[in-house]
Write a structure and sequence with these properties.
The chain is an all-beta fold and 373 residues long. Strands 3-4-5-6-7-8-9-11-12-13-14-15-16-18 form a 14-stranded antiparallel barrel.
């Protein structure tokens, strides 16, 4: 969620006199966050160009042009030492600009870590769609809340912890008799290297409890996911990620955690990757805000233990998977981002662990919206 991949080399603006921007560039949230837990929202609106600047400074890098401080986007400087973090009380240290000399940059602009706490708040709706067992329609409302705490462990490693709460409201079908709502409580841990080398890495682990909170629960309500990847810059506009992920669901899965970014200009970027592909185009900026139009295609899979006795004599565990094609708008002022997107959800399938008959769900309308701050 998002709550979370490919490293993007980000251009940097010149700091005003006697000011030092405090930021460390991270692996692309559009890649990593789509995997973390079951929430696909994490990357949809993370602020590009979100510098951790000292209070009173106004420099950040809106996409497609000069930053607010007036300096043009350009190549990043060499690796630099640590400095103070104005966002953390007591003056702890954090790395100041450590730009990756060998990674791509483009539409997303600078992607620094925001040290301390950040918040993701999202909602979504999947329209009522027929099921293939003639048992009526299936409708979903989604809500997601995640708080992310990020801190430097050393000059070479960044640790992020993300507690999440997710809720799904289900309506229908009549058979099987699914619960009206399911919950997920998760804790994600991510260890990564700053974007300051041509080769970087990311390791992540998520533990979660997913249930309808009815009846008794067993180990089926607990899920443990893992991911890992290496990131390589092949030329100034092209980055490759190679990795894999393990998803603990009804049917455990090992899937690619990989892809490429092609960023030929500051106005266009194509992230061709799994589990989420996104192509973005800069519409423009005014009054401190920048706006992007983007299209995406993503794979989503969720699982919950529910109070439904299966033929196998145990409470069922349900797994629902689908693909989502979306068109969206995102706007950002450097500290707060809002996004709204809509599209089509398809290839939907519900699977059960203990013998309850599986069923397919017809394609339908989907919309999502949220804030990042």
């Amino acid at each position: 969620m998002t709550a979370t991949g490919l490293l993007i080399l980000c251009s940097v603006c010149a700091a005003p006199p006697n000011e030092t921007p405090s930021q460390v560039f991270r692996t692309s949230p559009a890649f990593a966050a789509a995997i973390r837990g079951q929430s696909p929202y994490d990357d949809a609106g993370l602020p590009p160009g979100n510098f951790n600047a000292a209070p009173g400074t106004t420099y950040q890098a809106p996409l497609g042009g000069a930053p607010l401080g007036g300096a043009p986007l350009g190549s990043p400087p060499a690796n630099q030492a640590f400095g103070s973090d104005p966002f953390l009380s007591g003056g702890p240290v954090l790395p100041v600009p450590q730009y990756d000399q060998g990674l791509t940059y483009g539409i997303t602009g600078p992607q620094p870590y925001r040290f301390g706490w950040t918040t993701r708040l999202d909602g979504g709706y999947l329209s009522a769609s027929n099921t293939d067992n003639d048992a009526g329609k299936f409708e979903v409302w989604e809500s997601n809340l995640a708080l992310r705490y990020t801190t430097p462990l050393s000059q070479n490693f960044i640790l992020a912890w993300t507690p999440e709460v997710n809720y799904r409201s289900w309506q229908g079908p009549s058979t099987p008799n699914l619960p009206g709502g399911v919950y997920r409580f998760a804790s994600d841990y991510e260890l990564s290297t700053p974007a300051n080398n041509p080769v970087a890495m990311q390791l992540g682990f998520t533990s979660s409890f997913a249930s309808d909170l009815r009846g008794s629960t067993s180990s089926d309500a607990w899920q443990y996911d893992a991911r890992g990847a290496l990131f390589f810059r092949l030329d100034p506009t092209f980055t490759v990620a190679l990795g894999a992920m393990y998803l603990d669901r009804v049917h455990d899965q090992i899937l690619p955690y990989a892809g490429v970014i092609w960023a030929p200009s500051n106005e266009f970027e194509a992230r061709i990757m799994f589990p989420k592909t996104r192509i973005s185009y800069l519409l423009g900026g005014a009054g401190g805000y920048t706006t992007w139009l983007y299209g995406s295609l993503e794979y989503n899979i969720e699982a919950y233990q529910i109070d439904l006795m299966g033929p196998g004599g145990a409470d069922e565990q349900i797994q629902i998977e689908d693909y989502r094609a979306m068109l969206g708008l995102r706007t950002d002022n450097g500290m707060v981002t809002g996004f709204v997107e809509a599209g089509y959800v398809f290839a939907r399938h519900a699977d059960f662990h203990y013998g309850t008959p599986d069923f397919n769900i017809d394609g339908g309308f989907i919309t999502r919206f949220g804030l990042r701050f």
